[in-house]
Amino acid sequence: MLSSGRLALFGSLLVFSLAAPAWARQSASAPTPEEHDYVIHDFHFKSGETLAELRLHYLTFGKPVKDASGRVTNAVLILHGTGGSGRQFLQPQFADMLYGPGQLLDIARYFIILPDNVGHGKSSKPSDGMHAHFPSYEYDDMVAAQHELLEKGLGVNHLRLILGTSMGCMHSWVWAETYPQFMDALMPLACQPVQIAGRNRIWRKMVIDGIRKDPDWKNGDYTAEPRAGIQIAADFLLIAGSVPLLMQSSYPTRDAADKYLDEYVARVSATLDANDMLYAVNSSRNYDPSPKLESIAAPVMFVNSADDFINPPELGIAEREIKRVKNGKFVLIPGSAQTHGHGTHTWAALWQQYLKELLDESVH
Predict the structure, then answer these.
(1) How does pLDDT run across 322-332, given as a tens digit for each residue?
(2) What is the reported pTM?
């Protein structure tokens, strides 16, 4: 069995809300955040669909501070990955490194906003009752909802920083192009600023097709979770978020690996909803910030990890595209026994020096 630290790691492999023990392992030192809901009425999706009430759940630390002109100066928006929630940023490897007194995102200084994005956490999602009749959301819809939450729900008219992991990393690029003057700085972690294609698209489509082609999915109107579709999703989540060095050392024999896989699939399958998973993975289908990278105004500190299955460094995409960002910098963290594959994005000790550099350089 995994230690508690490794459970937290594997629970955040792809930042899917997979293992309750991992998400429940919150920082013991960070205070309890405030927890709220904001409802957007008659929300219009890019698909042409509408939702009479779109609920956005969110957590906050601290209070907003405004300058003499009324502009908020200390708000930080932190965006989670596919299938995750704002609560993932309460894990010790993130919260204990950033939120404390004198730390980079000290909650006595900053107004920290941790939303559950559309289709995720306690926000509106297919499993709430609409099933596959829920609007077919995409990243532009999710960012538009985040923007309304900030401006109308929280009165935040400017952000000191957007930090996003995985799907949240991609949302950071959408923010940078859609609302280029809204933030002072951006830190995208674990993604690429181009259309999802190649192996990244293929494994996602395998998950989507695995659910849709399971006869027990019943066009989304199932009463019991479609077993085959859920198993396919769980299997691919494990591979996509895998950490080769750690997994080899943790499961050095065939029997150890087989035992872990059986336990993992049983644990993960019990937490997944097929429609929520299908919608979450499919929401990336139209993502492509590459045509407008030159329009980004704010400084960008873009960080990937070399042992990330989803964003392998040999593609050279990050190094090529960051040259088109006027104030952009890309950092590739070398793979090692300390990195965590795709999940490196949540282990702040590995990249906080680059966050400090970004905050120092973007002070006004």
Answers:
(1) 999 999 999 99
(2) 0.93
